[in-house]
Specification:
Layout: E1 6-10, H1 16-32, E2 38-44, E3 57-64, E4 67-72, H2 85-103
Helix pairs in contact: 1-2
Protein name: Ribosomal subunit interface protein
Length: 107
């Protein structure tokens, strides 16, 4: 990647384990698609809703030659989010991988 990974936490405590997981997942994307030039990952926990816990939302913006990829960690009802931040991360990175595959049929 030409630019360093940008990682933003909103209403979520930054943790070394969470940061390491993001770096691992972006490393896997780079092995899958070596033309990623920039990446911004946002991990967010909106205000808690009564009886619903704090769902997590992960969004990823990747820059590749010729455009951008936008992916979100949503599952089922997009308004519910994920109760597990790691599930939201996996979901978002899976979506990014599928979009990269569709953007470049050689992969």
């Amino acid at each position: 990647m030409q630019s360093p990974l940008r990682l933003t936490f909103r209403h979520v405590d930054r943790s070394p384990a969470l940061e390491a997981r993001v770096h691992d997942l972006i490393g896997r994307l780079e092995k899958f698609h070596d033309r990623i030039t920039a990446c911004h990952v946002v991990i967010e926990a909106p205000n808690a809703r009564p009886g619903k816990g704090r769902p997590f939302d992960v969004s990823i913006e990747l820059a590749i030659p010729g455009g951008f990829i936008h992916a979100h960690g949503t599952h089922g009802n997009a308004n519910e989010g994920h109760a597990d931040v790691y599930a939201a991360l996996s979901d978002a990175f899976d979506s990014a991988r599928r979009q990269l595959q569709n953007a470049d049929p050689t992969h």
